[in-house]
Design goal:
Shape: globular
Number of helices: 17
Oligomer: single chain
CATH architecture of the largest domain: 3-Layer(aba) Sandwich
Strand content: 15-25%
Number of domains: 3
Length: 557
């Protein structure tokens, strides 16, 4: 499809609201619910505030707060006005929030109650106002007209709709495919954040993809649980905006998803699809599945025909029930899935699949339905995209993964140099990831920025070593770095097990040395670990739960 043929995204929002007027739209899980008509009312009131603040189409409006229904409604208000939404991850440090609000030239800021106490409005001098995501009150106002509008909002709303507030009276900004819709700042796994300019065509294309692959499962009135941060494109696209367009009900986990809270929510909501990062599924499997198959007797019986099938089915049913029991599939993305965990999921017949994407593609690039999932791969090229490997032998020799199509960003905001590095003259987006394609399936080998060079020029992919190391005794988190021509494993131990077994620091170091001796024979000579350093604290991570590698490249050993 040509970009010029892409329909108006805002008109799809309008149509969804009109068609699903009396249905539940968004809930703060266990607290309160907004129906689609309530969202429509919020949108109109926000438009009144924007208008009085002098906001023009194309102006930036930032949002920074945990997942909330009012966050979702504010986001829809921004798009349907024709302004540009600037979602900022609420886990960012206050100074970084200040920098991103200023860098984006945002005119207004919607802010959550947990974020606001750490911010300083004086550090964001260009803002006309700061609006609370708790009740849409004005926390800061630097515009008399904006203050007047907020004080008289109900009266102004009544004047705008003097008879009744009905679906037929709604009218939203009609967007163009290449128009900027969202300015999304990357979470900075390998470098500092960059402002990714997402056009309306990319939002539409990702939703059209979701309709093609999940439309049979995610339908009007169905239940979805949102666990990922909406300020990240993965969660925004597949736990919120697509569901909103089809008339589904999104339940936001507004608190930190501890195992207890998560399991309770899954049991009550029974979502029709689960969108997760590997960390979540790996923790559930390690707690709920692995202990059940550690018994030598169980392992032996699993190899017996018929009996083994029954045992695997029972384990699969138990895991499925623990995750709500009503989902079509679990879609895993955002980072690499541990190969041992994936093989186990595959062996028991669990309905999972692994996708691949990037913020710069809003986010989807590759995907397979769970029935077609190939262990170790992250799917095939999705609709509206092209995919190729920059390699003389794409099936056997890893090369950079390139993609182009409707999903690709316009570029990086105020950063032409980075944009030229990322998107070539032919429109191919250079992901920075390395992979191969076999039978149409994409297999990730690592990131070109993290690839290490061996003493004799060998390509070393630290992620592959980390995947093996993470399965070793007491290893909770790990990272492989290079010091000269030596490879060193950085490991944060499983503190729960350390306390349970009453291990001393020297005990832990001895166990890690044993791990090193056990793992090395399974690695090529040039990729073996020279030592393992025990870390005292957890690795710093992005909100997507990826370790910030760049912080540990020059660590003292």
């Amino acid at each position: 499809m040509k970009p010029t043929e892409v329909p108006s995204y805002n008109q799809m929002i309008l149509q969804s609201i009109q068609e699903h007027w009396f249905l539940d739209s968004m809930s703060d899980y266990g607290v309160f619910t907004l129906q689609y008509k309530d969202v429509a009312r919020i949108i109109e009131k926000m438009h009144i505030l924007f208008e009085h603040a002098g906001i023009q189409p194309g102006d930036k409006i930032a949002l920074c707060g945990r997942n909330l229904s009012r966050w979702g409604a504010a986001f829809m208000s921004i798009l349907t006005y024709g302004a540009v939404a600037v979602p900022i991850l609420h886990e960012f440090h206050p100074s970084q929030v200040h920098d991103l609000v200023n860098h984006s030239e945002s005119k207004l800021l919607f802010v959550g109650d947990k974020v606001w106490p750490g911010l300083n409005a004086d550090e964001m001098p260009e803002l006309l106002g700061v609006i609370s995501l708790v009740d849409y009150s004005l926390l800061v106002c630097r515009s008399e007209k904006l203050g007047y509008a907020r004080e008289n909002l109900n009266r102004l709303f009544g004047e705008k709709f003097p008879s009744r507030f009905l679906p037929k009276y709604l009218k939203y900004y009609e967007d163009k495919p290449d128009e900027l819709a969202v300015l999304n700042y990357t979470s900075g796994t390998t470098s500092n954040s960059k402002g990714v300019m997402i056009p309306y065509r990319a939002l539409w294309s990702n939703c059209d993809f979701a309709e093609h692959v999940m439309g049979h499962a995610v339908k009007t009135g169905c239940e979805v649980l949102s666990m990922l941060p909406m300020a990240h494109m993965y969660g925004m696209a597949f736990e919120f905006t697509y569901e909103f367009l089809v008339g589904a009900h999104v339940n936001f986990l507004t608190k930190m998803a501890s195992p207890t809270i998560l399991m309770k929510a899954l049991a009550e909501v029974k979502p029709v699809v689960l969108i997760v990062v590997p960390l979540i599924i790996e923790k559930v499997v390690r707690k709920a599945v692995l202990p059940r198959i550690q018994d030598p007797k169980v392992r032996m019986l699993m190899n017996v025909p018929i009996i083994g099938d029954r045992i695997r089915k029972r384990i699969c049913d138990g895991l499925t029930e623990a995750l709500g029991g009503n989902f079509y599939e679990v879609i895993i993305g955002g980072a690499a899935l541990n190969q041992e965990i994936e093989q186990l999921l595959h062996d028991i017949g669990f309905r999972y699949t692994v996708g691949y994407g990037a913020t710069e593609c809003a986010p989807i690039i590759a995907y397979n339905d769970w029935k077609d999932q190939v262990v170790g791969s992250c799917g095939k090229c999705v609709i509206h995209q092209e995919l190729r490997i920059d390699s003389p032998d794409p099936e056997h020799v890893a090369g950079e993964i390139l993609t182009r199509g409707l999903n690709v960003m316009l570029g990086y905001y105020k950063n032409e140099e980075a944009t030229k590095e990322a998107i070539d003259e032919d429109g191919w987006y250079h992901t920075g990831d390395l992979g191969v394609i076999k039978n149409g399936n994409l297999f990730i080998k690592g990131r070109s920025k993290t690839m290490l060079l061996g003493a004799n020029g060998q390509n070393i992919y630290p992620e592959e070593i980390e995947d093996k190391l993470s399965n070793m005794t007491l290893v909770s988190e790990c990272l492989v770095v290079q010091k000269g021509d030596k490879l060193v494993g950085l490991v944060y131990p499983d503190q729960e097990q350390v306390k349970k077994l009453r291990l001393s620091a020297s005990d832990v170091e001895s166990i890690m040395e044993q791990n090193r001796k056990e793992i090395n024979p399974n690695l090529p000579a040039y990729a073996q670990l020279s030592s393992i350093k025990v870390m005292e604290n957890e690795f710093e991570k992005t909100p997507k739960k990826s370790i910030k590698r760049y912080l540990y490249q020059n660590i003292d050993l």
